[in-house]
Amino acid sequence: MEFNVKKLASDAGVFFSRAMQFTEEKLGQAEKTELDAHFENLLARADCTKNWTEKILRQTEVLLQPNPSARVEEFLYEKLDRKVPSRVTNGELLAQYMTEAANDFGPGTPYGKTLIKVGETQRRLGAAEREFIHSASINFLTPLRNFLEGDWRTISKERRILQNRRLDLDACKARLKKAKAAEAKAALWSDEVEKAEHELRLTQTEFDRQAEVTRLLLEGISSTHVNHLRCLHEFVESQTNYYAQCYQFMLDLQKQLGRFSGTFVGNADSTSPAAAPSPPAVAAATLPAVPTIPVVPTIGGVPNTVAEGVLNPNEVKPPASGTRKARVLYDYEAADSTELALLADEMITVYSLPGMDPDWLIGERGNQKGKVPVTYLELLS
Fold it and tell me: In a 10 Å sphere around its CB, with 0-12 CB exposed, 13-18 middle and 19+ buried, how is residue 193 labelled?
């Protein structure tokens, strides 16, 4: 019990001495031991590293998870050392809605087919996003957090100890200075001078030892930069792979939707031309008679009157020059009898005719011929 009381009294005395020294320094009434320029540069570099690491970490978290409530939930699970529950991505949720809508509208209708195709792509995009977030969290966010919660806390602790050792050192210097001033007036103070010099030697040794420990930790910031540089490269690689996957998914979807380019009219039967809307009965009694203009349907962007004489698959004649070989990139299902079904990797002959839609060509395979979409072909020289 007595030992504890003495220890508490000693600690209180040390704390009071440090507080007095700190206050006098702020008021300009006491001298302060200055660290060398190299040490000060190390301190500034460490503070800069800590501040920017915090900002980069927080903004990367926002990039990967824009929902602040979800970020708070993940933070709490992490602090409780519990596994964060799996969360559906926005792309996966959109895919679910599109699939359900397609089932209600009819999966066999043009709109339903397209919803299913787009929904499947959104599901793949969502899965790619989930993989990217997981990779970025492990390879980039975790090392940054480890630095802030591990290395930086150790550095901060040793810096606080160094600050206390520096205050003790300067307090001893002040006491020695006062003892020497009093010694000049009375020889009885010689013991106080000797005691102050002994305390100064001890505090100087402790300060030097702590300064060396802190210096080694601060110099380790260079290794931290090297580690963070490697993590940054891994983050960029993950992000590159993610966006490359997204681009490929959307490119595949765009090509798949090419076969539905002729089915955007309201009628599910794409071979039937859209009927011209009849004018209201009331307007028919008041509007003057106008000569009837026949509706000319189109096939592949070409008027049907031309198609009947030129683009009819049984009557089309290839031009004397201008035919080319083409390799089929993707399977294509013919929408009607004027089109030619395709199989991936097969070779066909293609050519164009005056007045045709530039997105289409005439394709021939043996005795079969019909219109084919250009986006499904690789034209060969």
Answer: middle
